[in-house]
Amino acid sequence: MALSDALSVPSADSGVVRAVLLTPFRPRTYAAAAYLALAFPLGIAYFVGTVVGISLGLGLSVLVVGVPILAATLGGVVAVSIGERALAEALLGADITPPSWKVREASGVTDGAVAVVTDLAVWGAVAFVLSKLVVGVAGFTLLTVLLSVGGSLLATPLYYDAPGASVGLILPEPIRRELSLVVPWEQFEVGVSFIVRLTSWEVSTLPGALAMSLLGVLALLVGLNVLHAAGWLCARWAELTLGQGAPSIGTD
């Protein structure tokens, strides 16, 4: 191995560590958190509107009223995709090339309908709009679990000694388990046995509360990095479904 190759490995590792530690100080991290928080209510509205509109449009397609309902639904999906493209670019730093809609080049109602049905950009927008609910549920879960757990641990010194507060590992009764390994050897049996006993542990001193607070800092650091990574994935998904061409691969 060359000397330059040996020196590049620690440099790459230090770059990763630096990126992880600097995540809480990046505006893009909190922009991604805002994007995921907005995804939950928007995802519910998009999913209900799109599913109801497409279902009614297809169900009433044998009648004249079904066609305008379906056209209005797909038109709404396209309008939503334009707004979502701007939102992804503003909050996630996505690089999305606006698609060239085939319906703009169509002449007549029939050609317009064929252009909409055969346009991959329209179906990409439909896929994005329907997937927004999944993104919203996942984002709401991440924000609730990761950040609330980290925040509560971080604030342990503020409430650990409050009346009625219990901080730590609280079990209704001790857990006792025996682990044993027995190996037959001629007329004998040779074995090793361990007894594991887990009891409750409660924070009752300031040093213990400070230790829990440090654990909260670590939990928040992990949570913010997970949110940053989730934002990166959402940006790539937006580039894939809302743009024209392959998504760009990059890091923030």
TrEMBL record:
<keyword id="KW-0812">Transmembrane</keyword>
<feature type="transmembrane region" description="Helical">
    <location>
        <begin position="206"/>
        <end position="227"/>
    </location>
</feature>
<feature type="transmembrane region" description="Helical">
    <location>
        <begin position="30"/>
        <end position="48"/>
    </location>
</feature>
<dbReference type="GO" id="GO:0016301">
    <property type="term" value="F:kinase activity"/>
</dbReference>
<keyword id="KW-0808">Transferase</keyword>
<keyword id="KW-0472">Membrane</keyword>
<feature type="transmembrane region" description="Helical">
    <location>
        <begin position="60"/>
        <end position="82"/>
    </location>
</feature>
<feature type="domain" description="Putative sensor">
    <location>
        <begin position="35"/>
        <end position="239"/>
    </location>
</feature>
<keyword id="KW-0418">Kinase</keyword>
<dbReference type="InterPro" id="IPR025828">
    <property type="entry name" value="Put_sensor_dom"/>
</dbReference>
<dbReference type="Pfam" id="PF13796">
    <property type="entry name" value="Sensor"/>
</dbReference>
<keyword id="KW-1133">Transmembrane helix</keyword>
<feature type="transmembrane region" description="Helical">
    <location>
        <begin position="112"/>
        <end position="130"/>
    </location>
</feature>
<feature type="transmembrane region" description="Helical">
    <location>
        <begin position="137"/>
        <end position="160"/>
    </location>
</feature>
<protein>
    <submittedName>
        <fullName>Histidine kinase</fullName>
    </submittedName>
</protein>
